[in-house]
């Protein structure tokens, strides 16, 4: 039985761990959090900081793993690539992973090769760096940590003062202490997941998105089909971006904005499977392609199968972004699933504290619906989310 090391063992990674076991691999998971949910599904686990590349490599060598992967988080990308390179395992090139992990370097390459329509971008590592560029900036702009994940510390700035505050927050949230400033694009956001295998770029899915209102810009859910008129053009732009960035292997998740004038702007690239049920549920259900299984198999050097099996017409999800408070009671999830014709995935427990929703880390789970009708799927997940929110008994609001 081949051993696969899964970098990260949170709620979303637990789906990967379970899938890897289901298809016959010995699963080893690592995470900094000793209480990570995924640990209970793994054959073996270790408490290791997933951004500490040397510690992750030491652990991988000790376990003599046959493959390594991460999913649904950017924080494990560099350690995954480092282990793959050092142990001669399948994986994205380490130098390429370093580029993709840095949002400024990605923006620079996409701009230089004229892949999309962003015109201004700057990288700063200290608030004093603004003095040399602040008079040249055209507002509004978006500010984000250069190596961030899950929409954390992503802010729009409309003025010099707002820019300074946003940059301070982004730098503080960045592991490498750098922030990216770029155009604010007024458009509709879409998610795109691709899989690179044997030199071929397979664009597996384009998803419509629900997003939070300003000042936060966080995902609230997805739907497929996207109903985007220019989806075929968007797929070609994504393929070109993958090639320009030199991504040679594995899953790639992109966030893309499309304006009313059909300008296309790539706003984020992750060298891993999409989170928020994208890779584990949405794409496999809608397309009939075993996306997650293919990533796992490719990571240990086994043959993959991208054939289509039992695709569904429409799928929609909603993040359980709930009102804050300490949980004193939970709703009847089975009754809600039956009434709304949905599936609920959650990690709510009595005694937990629900945080106000500002980014993906504040979510409490997901609702998923499959339907012949796209609108009906969307209505079902929204109703289920509301019933869950109303059904949670809270001690107090925060």
TrEMBL record:
Residues 108-300 form the ATP-grasp domain. Keywords: ATP-binding, Ligase, Nucleotide-binding. PANTHER family: ATP-GRASP ENZYME FSQD, FUMIPYRROLE BIOSYNTHESIS PROTEIN C. This is ATP-grasp domain-containing protein. The lineage of its organism: Bacteria, Bacillati, Bacillota, Clostridia, Eubacteriales.
């Amino acid at each position: 039985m081949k051993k696969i090391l899964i970098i990260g063992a949170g709620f979303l990674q637990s789906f990967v761990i379970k899938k890897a076991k289901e298809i016959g691999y010995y699963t080893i998971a690592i995470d900094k959090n000793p209480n990570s949910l995924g640990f209970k599904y793994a054959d073996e686990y270790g408490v290791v900081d997933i951004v500490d590349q040397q510690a992750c490599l030491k652990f991988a060598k000790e376990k003599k793993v046959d493959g390594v992967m991460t999913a649904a988080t950017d924080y494990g990308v560099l350690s995954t690539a480092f282990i793959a390179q050092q142990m001669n395992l399948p994986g994205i090139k380490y130098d390429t992973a370093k580029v993709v992990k840095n949002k400024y370097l990605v923006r620079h390459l996409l701009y230089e090769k004229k892949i999309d329509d962003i015109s201004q971008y700057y990288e700063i590592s200290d608030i004093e760096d603004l003095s040399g560029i602040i008079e040249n900036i055209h507002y509004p702009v978006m500010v984000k940590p250069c190596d961030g994940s899950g929409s954390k510390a992503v802010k729009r700035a409309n003025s010099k003062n707002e820019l300074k505050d946003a940059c301070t927050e982004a730098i503080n949230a960045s592991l490498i202490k750098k922030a990216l400033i770029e155009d604010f694009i007024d458009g509709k956001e879409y998610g795109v997941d691709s899989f690179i295998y044997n030199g071929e770029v397979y664009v597996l899915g384009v998803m419509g998105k629900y997003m939070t209102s300003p000042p936060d810009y966080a995902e609230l859910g997805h739907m497929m089909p996207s109903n985007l008129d220019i989806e075929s053009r968007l797929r070609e732009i994504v393929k070109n971006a993958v090639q320009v960035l030199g991504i040679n292997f594995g899953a790639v998740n992109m966030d893309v904005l499309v304006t009313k004038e059909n300008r296309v702007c790539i706003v984020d690239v992750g060298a891993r499977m999409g989170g928020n049920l994208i890779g584990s549920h949405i794409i496999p259900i809608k397309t009939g392609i075993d996306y997650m299984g293919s990533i796992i198999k490719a990571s240990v050097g086994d043959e993959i199968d991208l054939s289509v099996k039992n695709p569904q017409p429409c799928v929609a999800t909603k993040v359980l972004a709930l009102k804050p408070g300490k949980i004193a009671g939970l709703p009847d999830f089975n009754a809600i699933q039956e009434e709304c014709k949905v599936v609920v995935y959650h990690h709510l427990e009595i005694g937990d504290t629900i945080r106000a929703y500002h980014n993906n880390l504040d979510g409490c789970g997901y609702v998923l619906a499959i339907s012949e009708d796209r609108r009906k799927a969307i209505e079902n997940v929204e109703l289920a989310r509301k019933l869950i929110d109303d059904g949670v008994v809270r001690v107090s609001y925060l």
